[in-house]
Design a protein that fits this description.
transmembrane helix, transmembrane, membrane, elongated, 57% helix
Length: 188
Protein backbone atom coordinates (compact mmCIF):
# COMPACT_ATOMS: atom_id res chain seq x y z
CA UNK A 1 0.00 0.00 0.00
CA UNK A 2 1.53 3.37 -1.03
CA UNK A 3 2.25 5.76 1.77
CA UNK A 4 -0.53 8.37 2.05
CA UNK A 5 -1.26 10.68 4.94
CA UNK A 6 -4.78 10.87 6.41
CA UNK A 7 -5.69 13.69 4.00
CA UNK A 8 -4.80 11.56 0.96
CA UNK A 9 -1.53 13.32 0.06
CA UNK A 10 1.39 11.21 -1.16
CA UNK A 11 4.22 10.99 1.34
CA UNK A 12 7.68 9.81 0.21
CA UNK A 13 9.63 7.40 2.26
CA UNK A 14 12.42 9.00 4.27
CA UNK A 15 15.82 8.72 2.58
CA UNK A 16 18.22 6.10 3.75
CA UNK A 17 20.97 7.45 6.02
CA UNK A 18 24.29 8.26 4.27
CA UNK A 19 27.37 6.29 5.25
CA UNK A 20 29.88 8.28 7.29
CA UNK A 21 32.56 10.10 5.27
CA UNK A 22 36.10 8.90 5.68
CA UNK A 23 39.08 10.75 4.26
CA UNK A 24 41.20 9.50 2.66
CA UNK A 25 38.97 6.85 1.23
CA UNK A 26 39.96 3.33 2.17
CA UNK A 27 42.00 1.46 -0.44
CA UNK A 28 40.09 -0.84 -2.70
CA UNK A 29 41.25 -4.10 -4.13
CA UNK A 30 40.15 -3.06 -7.62
CA UNK A 31 42.91 -2.50 -10.17
CA UNK A 32 42.70 0.57 -12.37
CA UNK A 33 41.45 0.12 -15.92
CA UNK A 34 44.16 -0.93 -18.39
CA UNK A 35 44.25 2.45 -20.15
CA UNK A 36 45.44 4.11 -16.95
CA UNK A 37 48.43 1.84 -16.40
CA UNK A 38 51.63 3.53 -17.58
CA UNK A 39 54.17 0.92 -18.71
CA UNK A 40 56.55 3.31 -20.44
CA UNK A 41 60.18 2.83 -19.53
CA UNK A 42 59.58 -0.83 -18.74
CA UNK A 43 59.82 -3.96 -20.82
CA UNK A 44 56.09 -4.46 -20.39
CA UNK A 45 53.27 -4.45 -22.85
CA UNK A 46 53.12 -1.80 -25.53
CA UNK A 47 49.75 -0.01 -25.74
CA UNK A 48 47.74 -0.57 -28.90
CA UNK A 49 47.97 3.15 -29.75
CA UNK A 50 51.79 2.96 -29.82
CA UNK A 51 51.89 -0.40 -31.60
CA UNK A 52 49.60 1.01 -34.32
CA UNK A 53 52.23 3.63 -35.25
CA UNK A 54 54.35 2.27 -38.09
CA UNK A 55 56.94 5.06 -38.51
CA UNK A 56 58.82 7.51 -36.32
CA UNK A 57 59.87 10.61 -38.24
CA UNK A 58 62.01 11.86 -35.37
CA UNK A 59 64.00 8.62 -35.40
CA UNK A 60 64.41 8.88 -39.17
CA UNK A 61 65.51 12.52 -39.34
CA UNK A 62 67.66 12.62 -36.18
CA UNK A 63 68.72 9.04 -35.44
CA UNK A 64 71.67 10.02 -33.25
CA UNK A 65 69.95 12.68 -31.15
CA UNK A 66 66.63 10.83 -31.00
CA UNK A 67 68.35 7.64 -29.77
CA UNK A 68 70.30 9.44 -27.05
CA UNK A 69 67.15 11.27 -25.91
CA UNK A 70 65.25 8.00 -25.60
CA UNK A 71 68.05 6.26 -23.67
CA UNK A 72 69.20 4.14 -26.58
CA UNK A 73 72.87 5.05 -26.13
CA UNK A 74 74.32 2.14 -28.14
CA UNK A 75 72.04 2.81 -31.11
CA UNK A 76 72.85 6.52 -30.91
CA UNK A 77 76.59 5.90 -31.01
CA UNK A 78 76.09 3.39 -33.82
CA UNK A 79 74.23 6.11 -35.74
CA UNK A 80 77.10 8.52 -35.15
CA UNK A 81 79.61 5.99 -36.51
CA UNK A 82 77.42 5.10 -39.50
CA UNK A 83 76.80 8.79 -40.21
CA UNK A 84 80.53 9.44 -40.24
CA UNK A 85 80.97 6.67 -42.84
CA UNK A 86 79.41 9.06 -45.33
CA UNK A 87 82.50 11.25 -45.20
CA UNK A 88 84.77 8.33 -46.11
CA UNK A 89 82.56 6.26 -48.42
CA UNK A 90 80.16 8.74 -49.96
CA UNK A 91 77.67 6.53 -51.76
CA UNK A 92 77.92 3.41 -49.64
CA UNK A 93 78.09 5.32 -46.37
CA UNK A 94 74.96 7.25 -47.27
CA UNK A 95 73.07 4.10 -48.22
CA UNK A 96 74.14 2.35 -45.02
CA UNK A 97 73.14 5.36 -42.90
CA UNK A 98 69.74 5.71 -44.61
CA UNK A 99 69.11 2.00 -44.08
CA UNK A 100 69.98 2.38 -40.40
CA UNK A 101 67.72 5.43 -40.07
CA UNK A 102 64.83 3.63 -41.79
CA UNK A 103 65.18 0.57 -39.53
CA UNK A 104 65.24 2.80 -36.49
CA UNK A 105 62.19 4.70 -37.75
CA UNK A 106 60.21 1.47 -38.24
CA UNK A 107 60.86 0.25 -34.68
CA UNK A 108 61.30 3.70 -33.15
CA UNK A 109 57.96 4.14 -31.40
CA UNK A 110 58.16 0.76 -29.68
CA UNK A 111 61.77 1.38 -28.64
CA UNK A 112 60.90 4.82 -27.30
CA UNK A 113 58.00 3.46 -25.23
CA UNK A 114 60.09 0.65 -23.77
CA UNK A 115 63.24 2.62 -22.99
CA UNK A 116 62.05 6.06 -21.86
CA UNK A 117 59.67 6.80 -18.99
CA UNK A 118 56.81 9.12 -19.97
CA UNK A 119 55.26 10.35 -16.74
CA UNK A 120 52.25 11.75 -18.58
CA UNK A 121 51.56 8.39 -20.22
CA UNK A 122 50.34 8.23 -23.78
CA UNK A 123 49.57 11.95 -23.99
CA UNK A 124 53.17 12.90 -23.19
CA UNK A 125 54.52 10.17 -25.50
CA UNK A 126 52.53 11.48 -28.47
CA UNK A 127 53.48 15.08 -27.70
CA UNK A 128 57.21 14.23 -27.53
CA UNK A 129 57.07 12.28 -30.80
CA UNK A 130 55.10 15.11 -32.44
CA UNK A 131 57.81 17.62 -31.47
CA UNK A 132 60.52 15.35 -32.92
CA UNK A 133 58.50 15.01 -36.12
CA UNK A 134 57.99 18.77 -36.48
CA UNK A 135 61.67 19.49 -35.89
CA UNK A 136 62.60 16.82 -38.42
CA UNK A 137 60.34 18.26 -41.10
CA UNK A 138 61.62 21.77 -40.36
CA UNK A 139 65.26 20.71 -40.73
CA UNK A 140 64.38 18.74 -43.88
CA UNK A 141 62.62 21.77 -45.39
CA UNK A 142 65.58 24.02 -44.51
CA UNK A 143 68.04 21.54 -46.03
CA UNK A 144 66.02 21.30 -49.26
CA UNK A 145 65.72 25.11 -49.41
CA UNK A 146 69.45 25.54 -48.83
CA UNK A 147 70.24 22.97 -51.52
CA UNK A 148 67.97 24.75 -54.01
CA UNK A 149 69.60 28.07 -53.16
CA UNK A 150 73.07 26.62 -53.68
CA UNK A 151 72.03 25.11 -57.04
CA UNK A 152 70.61 28.48 -58.05
CA UNK A 153 73.83 30.30 -57.10
CA UNK A 154 75.97 27.67 -58.85
CA UNK A 155 73.92 27.96 -62.05
CA UNK A 156 74.20 31.74 -61.96
CA UNK A 157 77.96 31.56 -61.42
CA UNK A 158 78.29 29.05 -64.27
CA UNK A 159 76.40 31.39 -66.61
CA UNK A 160 78.63 34.30 -65.61
CA UNK A 161 81.78 32.23 -66.12
CA UNK A 162 80.60 31.02 -69.53
CA UNK A 163 79.90 34.57 -70.67
CA UNK A 164 83.22 35.80 -69.30
CA UNK A 165 85.28 33.12 -71.04
CA UNK A 166 83.45 33.56 -74.34
CA UNK A 167 84.47 37.21 -74.39
CA UNK A 168 87.93 36.34 -73.06
CA UNK A 169 88.64 34.05 -76.01
CA UNK A 170 87.05 36.48 -78.47
CA UNK A 171 89.34 39.19 -77.12
CA UNK A 172 92.45 37.16 -77.85
CA UNK A 173 93.13 35.96 -74.32
CA UNK A 174 93.15 39.37 -72.68
CA UNK A 175 91.29 40.07 -69.47
CA UNK A 176 87.72 41.16 -69.99
CA UNK A 177 85.50 43.26 -67.76
CA UNK A 178 81.86 42.39 -68.27
CA UNK A 179 79.48 45.29 -68.26
CA UNK A 180 76.55 45.13 -65.89
CA UNK A 181 74.11 44.82 -68.80
CA UNK A 182 75.97 41.70 -69.96
CA UNK A 183 75.61 39.98 -66.59
CA UNK A 184 72.37 38.32 -67.41
CA UNK A 185 70.36 36.43 -64.92
CA UNK A 186 70.84 32.64 -65.37
CA UNK A 187 71.98 32.75 -68.99
CA UNK A 188 73.17 29.37 -70.17
Amino acid sequence: MPPYDPLGNFVAEPPAPLPPRVWPPPPTSETPPPEEINTSGEDGDIPDEVAALKWSWGAFFFPFLWSINHRLIFLGLLGLVLGSLYWFFHVYGGVIFLTYAACLAIKGNELAWRRRRFEGGLAQFFEVQRVWMRCGFLVWALAISFTCLMLFVAARQRAYNRQYYQQYYQNGGHAVELRHSQKTFLTF
